[in-house]
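--- STAGE predict ---
source: upstream dedup step, 1 unique chain passed
mode: sequence only
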Amino acid sequence: MFDTLTDRFDGIFGRIRGRGKLTEADVDETMREIRLALLEADVNLDVVKSIVARIRERSVGEELSGALNPAQQVIKIVLEELTASLGGEAMKISYASKPPTVVLMAGLQGAGKTTNTGKLAAWFKKQGRNPLLVGADLQRPAAVEQLRTLGEQVGVSVFSEATDPVDVAKKAILEANRTGRDVVIVDTAGRLAVDAELMEEIRQISDAVSPDYTFLVIDAMTGQDAVTTAQSFNETLELDGVILTKLDGDARGGAALSVKEVVGKPIAFASIGEKLDEFEIFHPERLASRILGMGDVESLIEKAEEVFDKEEAEETAARLMEGTFTLEDFLGQMQQIKKMGPLGNLMGMMPGMPKEARDVEIDDRQINRIEGIIHSMTPAERVNPEVIDGSRRQRIAIGCGQSPADVKQLIEQFSQMRKMMKQFAGFGTKKMNPKQRQKAKGKKTKKGGRHKQGGGRVTEKGPAKVSKMPLSLPGLEDGEGLFGGN
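--- STAGE serialize ---
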């Protein structure tokens, strides 16, 4: 969503980096470019004025004049002010001392309110809670059925009746107490636009259930209209926070940067994809860091911790450095990475990633093709891909629907990667003694001679036998590292 804004900031900061001193004229020019970048990103005009004024005030004061690197200090100031504009810090969810904790969901039709109601239930369940979904949207056809479908996918019960939305909400609280549910999430009706009837219905539901949290679901793709909608709902409901949807879209992102300062309510959650688990607490400082092209290491680590087992990851890393990493290991790692989300999103979280790398269109289906190639191999071929000759490549290619050249390319790239990692691991280690070197260079046959170097097929026909010994790489047994050993 913020790719264009990120590119603009890259250009702005690129022009001031390396300067030993920034004059007031330099600061004015930088502020002008930041103002234009924010306006082009559809940020509210008043918010733009406020952000730029705060940045300029700090940039021409003692804070900048006393800095050893003024350009870096300006970047730091911009980061802090963008973070403040986005809300400052992540919203902390607390729970009612006497369950259930009631959450009221509001929003216009089409913003993704019902879908995000299901996502919020999945999030609460991940926190160890036992939520109940309430279908109080009796206006839109099949809204309750959609909620029931989401409830089944998440593993959460849904309560609803074909009566009155206010009565449904009241009875849902009684049902939660009866069944021991500690969180109740009420999905209300939406309209195509804000109207008096919609607001009155939501106000009555709110009065009936006394929610602990009232969240407004708004579509980030609607730009400044999203901020206007938030203002209207806040006047009626006293919102506690906003759930921003479609942050993975290609809109300019002005709503995210405007809603907190205009409405005065924080962004509580962000929907970053279509899947039910692509929903997370909104972290202003992390998004600000990504907007400025600095990556988001914390989110990347959290995603990795969710899908990777620590001990298994350590063992895999050890095998990679030892040169015993197999295609079976590689397959497992790819399957884990897929669980972390689209590769393009992960690239954006990596700090120091150049613009050219961020702009590359990454096709997640490429991973599926690689998986298909590896799945078409025998267990022995995955352990030791060196046994794969022309006939085996042909068989693998037919099995996965790819060409033999694709199979060959994957094997070669994998071998190069494994070789490089082993060389890095061996850099700085002691060389083998002469006896170890002689033993590694070539084992003798039973008759005392060395293996012949003849041509032709080098493996027996039929399935290859899986060796119980660790896999060693040709040409690396003497311990020579990438930089010449030692």
